[in-house]
Design goal:
The protein is of the alpha+beta class. The protein has seven helices and ten strands. It has one domain.
Length: about 240
């Protein structure tokens, strides 16, 4: 008769442990974003990071996730990453698939930095669990990053905070310049909120501080943004 009680207690303890790990991970992620994004701006004297970088022909090259790497984890990834060409070009392919190996002081596996963006329990998957939520039209400006001659950065408008959604699953490679649009998609390959709404775990709003919202609060926040947009559209008519 005692076994169900023991099993129940074990499962309860296991669930509590999972919740504790999730809370610790959310706190750590918030701390990393609160450090990485302001430091990117201070280092490059930029309003960024840009959400995506494109070439002059409009081909999407790089994601904010890749550009933020030097401020997330120090290893050789950014030294190896060819910013003159796309994230999935032949020059970057073995970084994208995680097979490039080096013999340097910074480590042998430059793609190990991707562990920050990925779900650790998904094996070999390279999909990100963090995507930017774009809630306003992006602004195109010359991108002044390394090896960026002629490239264009697409930035959030001034005064719009960066909101990052944590998802259970995104089907987006962590290096891919693809994110989520709350309203009109800025690029054809992007996802809409409807595509990922059931996958939302929590959100991080990065301003002067980082506001962490769990799933239910995030959904209320997104609904408030939609209602605000509807009121602004109605007022403009």
């Amino acid at each position: 008769m005692s076994r169900p009680i023991i099993v129940g207690a074990f499962l309860l303890a296991f669930c509590v442990g999972c919740e504790g790990r999730e809370a610790a991970r959310a706190k750590q992620t918030a701390q990393i974003f609160s450090y990485a994004i302001p430091n990117y701006r201070d280092t490059f004297l930029d309003a960024g990071p840009p959400i995506v970088v494109a070439d002059q022909d409009g081909n999407l090259l790089h994601s904010w996730r890749s550009l933020l790497i030097p401020f997330v984890m120090q290893n050789s990834f950014f030294d190896e990453y060819d910013l003159t060409t796309a994230w999935d070009s032949p020059q970057n392919q073995d970084l994208a698939d995680g097979t490039r190996r080096l013999d340097t002081e910074k480590g042998s596996d430059p793609a190990s930095v991707s562990t920050f963006y990925r779900e650790p329990r998904t094996g070999d998957s390279r999909d990100t669990i963090y995507v930017a939520l774009v809630q306003a039209p992006l602004e195109a400006k010359p991108y002044g990053g390394r090896d960026a001659d002629g490239h264009i950065g697409y930035y959030l408008p001034q005064g719009i905070p960066m909101v990052v959604l944590q998802l259970k699953q995104s089907d987006i490679h962590w290096m891919e310049p693809c994110d989520v649009a709350l309203f009109e998609k800025p690029f054809p390959n992007w996802l809409s909120l409807a595509d990922i709404q059931d996958q939302i775990v929590r959100s991080f709003e990065v301003g002067s501080e980082v506001t962490v919202r769990e799933r239910d609060e995030t959904l209320r926040f997104l609904e408030q943004l939609r209602q605000q947009d509807s009121r602004e559209v109605a007022a403009a008519q």
